[in-house]
Amino acid sequence: MLAYPGFEPLDLVGPHCILSGLANTRVHLVWKTNDAITTEGRFSIVPTTSIAQCPRDLDVLFVPGGTWGTVAMMGDEEVLSFLADRGSRARFVTSVCTGSLILGSAGLLQGYEATSHWMFRDILPVFGAKPVEERVVQDRNRMTGGGVTSGVDFGLVLASNLRGREVAETMQLSNEYDPQPPFRAGSPTTADPAILSAVRERLDPTYRQMRKAADEAHSFGHLGSA
């Protein structure tokens, strides 16, 4: 699991909660160094291994999303090279939220269906990916989750792929995952139009930065075949 400065904690914590609960599983939190990093929302997280020390052959490569942190990673040569290398051999190449834009910048979504946070999903075609409006999208060994809170859904689907449905359902019950949202505002299709407009306006500067980073990643030739 890539843990970079500025990532959205819930993107990673949801899947981590599910995956770390699987028997005989070792989860790596990977960054350039083992020094503590600050996430979006100012949580402090200590990586467990460095990019240089990360095992070459992984069952799962996972990338969380964020806002300014995602933009930075979309242009980080060291990170993109690491993802392209590990992604070429990983059993599953995965992300939640705007983490899919980082995968795309590393050339790992060319020709695959994928999803992202609803505000940024239409950037995916820049990377040769086909955007799909679903909570979790699996296309062969690529698995991507939608925005932020989809991480738990994503984690359960991934657990099912790794260990079978019974294990995934056991994890779901153990974590009492039985979502009953208090409001019907969690999707652009159900939110009040005024709220949708306000959120779009608030996220628009970030959208522009991510679109620019995507165009630059394409121009710099990161989008090779996976």
What's the structural blueprint in terms of helices and strands?
Layout: H1 9-19, E1 30-31, E2 37-38, E3 44-45, E4 49-50, E5 60-63, H2 68-73, H3 77-87, E6 92-96, H4 99-105, E7 113-114, E8 130-131, E9 136-139, E10 142-145, H5 150-163, H6 165-174, H7 193-219
Parallel strand pairs: 1-4, 5-6, 6-10, 7-8
Antiparallel strand pairs: 2-3, 9-10
Helix pairs in contact: 1-5, 5-6
Task: Name the descriptors.
single chain, 13% strand, alpha/beta, 226 residues, two-stranded parallel sheet, 4-stranded mixed β-sheet, Rossmann fold
Count of all domains: 1
Largest beta-sheet characterization? 4 strands, mixed
Q: Write down the overall geometry.
A: globular
Give the ordered list of helices and strands: HEEEEEHHEHEEEEHHH
Mean pLDDT: 96
What is the CATH level 1 assignment? Alpha Beta
Gap from first CA to last CA: 19 Å
Helical region count? 7
- Taken as a percent bin, the fraction of beta residues is 5-15%
Structural class: alpha/beta
Number of strand elements:
10
Q: Over the alpha carbons, how many angstroms does the gyration radius reach?
A: 17 Å
Explain what the structure shows:
The chain is α/β, with parallel strands linked by helices. It has a single domain, classed as Rossmann fold. Helices cover 38% and strands 13% of the residues. The protein has helices at residues 9-19, 68-73, 77-87, 99-105, 150-163, 165-174, 193-219, and strands at residues 30-31, 37-38, 44-45, 49-50, 60-63, 92-96, 113-114, 130-131, 136-139, 142-145. The strands form 4 sheets. A 4-stranded mixed beta sheet has the order 5-6-10-9. Strands 1-4 form a two-stranded parallel sheet. The protein has a two-stranded antiparallel ribbon with strand order 2-3. A hairpin with a 2-residue loop joins strand 9 and strand 10. The longest helix has 27 residues, at 193-219. The two termini are 19 Å apart.
